[in-house]
Amino acid sequence: MRLGRAKAARKTLKFYSINSNINPPYKVILDGNFLAALAKQKMEAVFFERLERLLHTHKFTVYTLRSALDELNLLPGEVFLEARRFGLDELEILERRDIPGAKEDSNPKQDILSLVKNGNPDGWFIATQDESLSDKIRDLPNVPQMRLARAALILESPSSSSRRSAMREERGKQSTGGGMMTNDERELVQRLRDERTKKRQRPSDDVDDAPRRKHKAKGPNPLSCKKKKSDSLAAKSDGKKRNRRKKTTDTSSGDV
User: Fold this and answer.
1) DSSP code for 57
2) How far is residue 99's CA from residue 115's CA, in Å, rounded to a whole number?
3) Tell me: the pLDDT tens digits for 50-109?
4) Which CATH class is domain 3-166?
5) Distance between CA atoms of residues 97 and 95, nearest Å
6) CA distance 67 to 96
7) Kind and range of the H or E element at 94?
8) 175 half-sphere exposure, CB direction, 13 A CA radius
9) What residue spans define the domains of the chain?
10) Cβ neighbours of residue 62 under 8 Å, at least 6 residues apart?
């Protein structure tokens, strides 16, 4: 497994561990489409090794559905025969009676959706190549999905439905103090929030109608009261100017 894919898988597993309490030992369901893809790409022998590297643990159990095996039995071709044989020999089989709400004639898609509805309480991982089933699962929160892409086993990132569910759960924990607040404390917090909201929603007209405070006039700027430099020079030029006579030295009177 490439480093980037392994890092993304660790991040996804951590998300489901924190927000959905999905932890080892993991439970993985392979539907008929996924089994057929394994057989077509000759990956049966290496599947468990790659799954162990993807999940970063050897603690997992892989299942398939009785309805998926019945569906493969109806399809002609060696690939579907090999896929059914791998499911019978190597995987645990979920009978219809083990699936809540499953009917005797239910198909694999119906059985999988019955297992993961209501937030996937049993923490199933679903491995499928069926795009229509994948789209329906992405609309449900807390359901990890796997698929094959060019002989590489991929763990999909959490869907938008799973992320929204995690955000709602986080907001709920914050509003209740992590679930440790009493009813009286929650009511107090809600009352304080309502009061704060009312203060923010007060009309701005109350502020506009309030009388404005009048500021007293300040004294003149002392810098503006200074006389200009040209005026002071003109004032000095009006007075009488004192003439000074230069003292000269008579050098011609020095006879010997």
Assistant:
1) S
2) 6
3) 999 999 999 999 999 999 999 999 999 999 999 999 999 999 999 999 998 888 889 999
4) alpha beta
5) 5
6) 7
7) strand 92-94
8) 12
9) 3-166
10) 28, 29, 30, 48, 51, 90, 91, 92
Q: What is the pLDDT of residue 204?
A: 55
Which residue do the tokens 């937030």 mark?
A: 119
pLDDT per residue over 229-241, tens digit each? Answer: 555 555 555 555 5
Residues pairing with 212 in the sheet: none
Q: Is the peptide bond before 25 cis (omega within 30 degrees of 0)?
A: yes
> Dihedrals φ, ψ of 201, to 5°?
-95, 5
What are the helix (H) ranges across 21-77?
32-40, 47-55, 66-73
Residues in Cβ contact with 256 at an 8 Å cutoff, skipping those fewer than 6 apart:
none
Bridge-based pairing of strands 92-94 and 145-149 is unpaired
Exposure letters 243-254 (e unless 16+ CB within 10 A, then b)? eeeeeeeeeeee
Total count of residues recorded for the chain: 256
Region label for 218, one of left (φ > 0), alpha (ψ between -120 and 50) or beta (otherwise): beta
Closest CA to 140 of 121, 156, 157, 159: 159
Q: What are the phi and psi torsion angles at 101 (to 5°)?
A: 80, 0
Are 92 and 80 a contacting pair, CB within 8 Å? no
Which residues, at least 6 apart from 252, have a Cβ–Cβ distance to it below 8 Å? none
